[in-house]
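We store sequence with structure; for instance:
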Amino acid sequence: SSGINAEYGGDKGDMANLGVICRVPGLYAALDARLSAEVVRAHFSYLGPELKVTKYHLPGTYAFNFVMENALGGGGIASLKSDPQGKAIGQIFSDFVVEGLKEKTEYGL
């Protein structure tokens, strides 16, 4: 993620969550505008056509939480996937490139 964000993931049943924390407050508005539920859903589209993503703002934290429903093939032992855990979601998302951001130096990096 180029050091701008911190990502984390978790799961419960067939739901996973992805947290994105903006380390640079000046970058928050640009990330908010470009990192939508639709963008995250497209990135994880391989999880299946039933995937539903909802974006939540976490006021005062410069962070977002994306709740991903129908993400884990039933979750845990109910899934036929080899590792249906949401803990890897953050790591998988860490290589995501947010399109349209200015150079890092314009955000004070």
